[in-house]
Design a protein that fits this description.
The complex is a heterodimer of chains A (529) and B (237). Chain A is α+β, with helices and mostly antiparallel strands. Chain A folds into two domains: 2-46 and 377-527, no CATH class; 86-274, no CATH class. Helix content of chain A is 48%, strand content 20%. Chain A has a six-stranded mixed β-barrel, surrounded by four helices. In chain A, strands 2-17 form a two-stranded antiparallel sheet. A two-stranded antiparallel sheet of chain A has the order 5-6. In chain A, helix 2 runs antiparallel to helix 17 and helix 3 (68-77) crosses helix 10. Chain B has seven helices and ten strands. Chain B has a six-stranded mixed beta sheet with strand order 6-7-8-3-9-10. Chain B has a four-stranded antiparallel beta sheet with strand order 2-1-4-5, covered by helices on one side. The chains are: A alpha+beta (529), B alpha/beta (237). Chain A binds chain B through residues 1-2, 5-6, 9-10, 13, 415-416, 418-427, 429, 522-523, 526, and chain B through 50, 53, 55-56, 78-79, 82-87, 91, 93, 97-99, 101-102, 106, 110-111, 113-118, 120-121, 163.
Chain lengths: 529, 237
């Protein structure tokens, strides 16, 4: 009982315990903030990957595989599968309205099914909104303006379908949805929203002209792709003007600056992966040489035609991937692995039924979202571990801080210790005062540290913006860290774990001084001056 | 006899030099008696008091004898010595030795908390009432919430006396209780100790270098150079 009274009195009577509390508080807050930012980074990395790829992907890169409609039907019949969608992935070159050329990752997607499999709907940027972004206190976001609501609805629909209505013909044309950072025509405001800006283009006569356009209304890019045959040989370079339907913002800078989505029909046509007829020898062998094949409609150069009887065969359309979304939230790896196992089983049967026409089940790549991002996820996990390891040294520093403070406090309180012993307190009882004191400092410091960490984590982007505007500091560069906002994830288990560790550190730091106090000779302690 | 000590030796080591402080002291105190240990500075009287109170132990020797109520203190374990100090003995020191963070009432109650351990929580109200009663007896009922730094030297010593009596000890050990006070205040404190002893019937050993203080005891033991050189009953008592 006397320990509780003395701990309470000591805790609020001196500056030293406040210093010790502050030390514990800062260590706990720092570890929690680091952990939550790295955790949020990892979380967002995984979620962003899933935003555009679903839970499990079946991939045969570059040349793709046929009969994907059949595969999708088979997958969607499975109770574990919510939906499946075709995807074509390749690299391409785009010429932006500014004249700049960009190498991009082109994903050919089917709007309706892509919407079902991924969180694409959430990342389409140009849409009418009613609530401003967190930092947009003045409500300057173009998307908020009621006079643009109809237009924004139109471009949203364009984004969903990856088409744009041709003003002259009135027909829907296959179109492109670019990552919001690809064109560099949109100015990213400090409040987090984008504003289309006037850009300069060089005219054919060499003069420069200002152009003020909203890309989803009138913008076009020139897309160049390399078409491969089913054996992976380059057939031709296809170049098309493609209207821009909308832009997307996944929050993952790498994706937003490097990925464009195009209508799958367009991608298939440009890559020669659409359904077509192919001429072959009557005996079934290729009618063309190894690098050129006859295609319908024919290209300028079909290559030398072999002699002998030939026939036309139907060649089905191909895609490079089928994306699968599982039922429910497949946040944990176990569920994604179960879905992957099911996809492997379904694909094995599919490959058997289409033997010779699609890659066998041993060659095809079937991967979860985590498999696909494993390199980056592992890197971030290792970086998190390394940071926590380094910051755990600070906890050791905190232990020494508590140790040093308690050591000097016990020297100061030597006479009090003698008094306690004279009144009959045992050695254990005296040690208990200082252990209890360390425990109290640990509890107060750790809890306040957790509260501070939660406040920092909750307002970290505001703090970052303030540091940027006040001191010109940009700690979180989106070009380095992929994300446009600092991600955080602070779960309760982490908080509890770090608080317990903070308390333990305090008790450990107090233990040796407490033993010293307990072993003091009471007579010497009473005579201490 | 309530307390008996014989052949008590105590040697301290200062660096490599052994300094004998007590050289075979013998003293007996009867139940209810007040004994003054009179001696000059360095005579070993405080050391003797600490040994009698279980704060210090005599040098190990087969001849050394130290008993309280016929129990051999030299054979007590650590926990038994703690129990002895908290249950049977009350200390009053020259420099009061109050805990500066605690107020007057808490300084008195801390002795009860150490005595009762976890049982204090159930007896808290009873113990608080007794502490207030003691503080009333020493004339400090109006200063319960004052810190020691807000009290005069005499008031601090009165708090120390109340703390020493909180557990109703059978033996009160006072080490120069007036040594840090002016003559008038010292006399008041001694009057108070006499009155309290009459009321509470405890045995008392007072260590002092002041003959006037010693003269209030039933018996005086004169200590010089680590030995009892004279023991006599005061005529006044």
């Amino acid at each position: 009982m006397f320990q509780a009274l003395l701990v309470r009195k000591y805790l609020f009577s001196k500056i030293m315990p406040l210093l010790a509390c502050t030390g514990v508080l800062l260590c706990v807050a720092m570890v929690l903030v680091i952990w939550s930012v790295m955790g949020g980074f990892l979380d967002l990395l995984i979620r962003s990957g899933r935003t555009t790829t679903g839970d499990v992907t079946i991939t045969w890169p570059n040349v793709g595989f046929a009969h994907y409609d059949d595969l999708i039907q088979r997958l969607e019949k499975d109770p574990l599968v919510e939906a499946a969608a075709p995807l074509i992935e390749t690299y391409g070159l785009i010429q932006l309205p500014t004249g700049r050329q960009e190498m991009v990752l082109v994903r050919g997607v089917d709007g309706p099914s892509f919407l079902q499999v991924t969180a694409y709907e959430d990342i389409i940027w140009w849409r009418p909104i009613t609530k401003p972004l967190r930092k947009d206190v003045k409500g300057e976001d173009l998307r908020l303006d009621p006079k643009y609501t109809n237009n924004m609805n139109t471009v949203l629909q364009q984004g969903r379908t990856l088409t744009r209505i041709d003003e002259e013909t009135g027909e829907a044309q296959p179109a492109m949805v670019m990552g919001i950072e690809v064109s560099r025509i949109n100015a990213r405001e400090a409040a987090g929203f984008y504003s289309p800006r006037v850009y300069r283009v060089r005219m054919p006569d060499g003069t420069m002209k200002d152009r003020d356009e909203f890309l989803p209304y009138t913008g076009e890019v020139v897309l160049s792709l390399l078409a491969l045959d089913k054996d992976g040989n380059v057939v031709e370079q296809a170049t098309r003007k493609v209207p821009i339907a909308n832009e997307f913002n996944s929050g993952l800078f790498e994706a937003d600056s490097k990925i464009v989505l195009v209508n799958i029909t367009l991608a298939q046509q440009m890559l020669r992966m659409h359904a077509q007829q192919r001429r072959v020898q009557a005996d079934g062998s290729d009618s063309t040489n190894s690098t050129k094949e006859a295609i319908t409609p024919p290209t300028d150069d079909d290559g030398p035609i072999r002699s002998g009887p030939t026939k036309l065969i139907d060649e089905p359309a191909r895609v490079t991937s089928v994306l699968i979304r599982g039922k429910g939230d497949l946040g944990d790896l176990g569920s994604a692995e179960a879905l992957k196992a099911r996809a492997e089983k379904i694909y094995a049967q599919f490959a058997k039924d289409h033997a010779g026409q699609v890659p066998d089940e041993f060659s095809i790549t079937i991967a979860t979202w985590e498999d696909q991002n494993r390199t980056m996820i592992n890197a971030v996990q290792k970086e998190t571990g390394l940071l926590l390891f380094l910051f755990s040294f600070l906890c050791i520093v905190a232990i020494f801080l508590i140790f040093a403070i308690f050591w000097s406090m016990i020297a100061e309180k030597t006479k009090d210790i003698g008094i306690m012993r004279a009144l009959g307190a045992s050695k254990f009882g005296v040690a208990g005062v200082w252990i209890g004191y360390g425990l109290a400092i640990g509890i107060v410091g750790s809890l306040l540290g957790a509260v501070l960490a939660m406040l920092i984590v909750k307002n970290i982007n505001t703090i970052h913006d303030f540091l940027g505007s006040a001191f010109g500091l940009t700690i979180w560069n989106p070009e380095v860290y992929y994300f446009t906002e600092i991600p955080t994830r602070l779960d309760n288990f982490k908080v509890i774990g770090v608080v317990i560790a903070g308390i333990l550190c305090s008790v450990i730091g107090a233990a040796i001084p407490a033993i010293r106090a307990a072993r003091m000779d009471p007579v010497k302690a009473l005579r201490f001056e | 006899m309530l307390l008996t000590a014989s052949n008590i030796h105590k040697t301290y080591t200062l660096g490599k030099v052994a300094v004998p402080v007590l050289k075979g002291v013998a003293i007996s105190v009867a139940q209810g008696e007040c004994v003054a240990v009179l001696g000059s500075s360095g005579s070993g009287k405080s050391t003797l008091l600490h040994i009698l109170g279980g704060l210090d132990s005599p040098d190990k020797s087969p001849q050394a004898q130290l008993t309280f109520d016929n129990r051999d203190l030299t054979r007590f374990s650590g926990s038994e010595i703690n129990h002895y100090r908290s249950h049977d003995v009350g200390f009053v020191f020259q420099f009061y030795h109050l805990l500066p963070e605690l107020d007057v009432l808490q300084n008195v109650l801390i002795g009860a908390m150490i005595h009762d351990g976890l049982g204090y929580s159930t007896a808290a109200s009873e113990r608080t009432a007794w502490a207030k009663e003691l503080l009333t007896q020493v004339g400090l009922s109006h200063r319960l919430k004052h810190k020691p730094t807000e009290l005069s030297g005499g008031e601090r010593q009165r708090v120390a006396i109340a703390r020493a009596l909180i557990n109703k000890p059978r033996l009160l050990l006072a080490d120069e209780p007036t040594g840090n006070l002016d003559r008038n205040t010292g006399a008041t404190i001694l009057d108070m100790l006499d009155k309290l002893r009459a009321d509470h019937q405890y045995t008392m050993v007072v260590v002092t270098h002041d003959a006037a203080t010693a003269s209030r005891a039933n018996r005086v033991v004169r200590l010089a150079d680590g030995l009892v050189v004279q023991s006599f009953a005061e005529a006044a008592n």
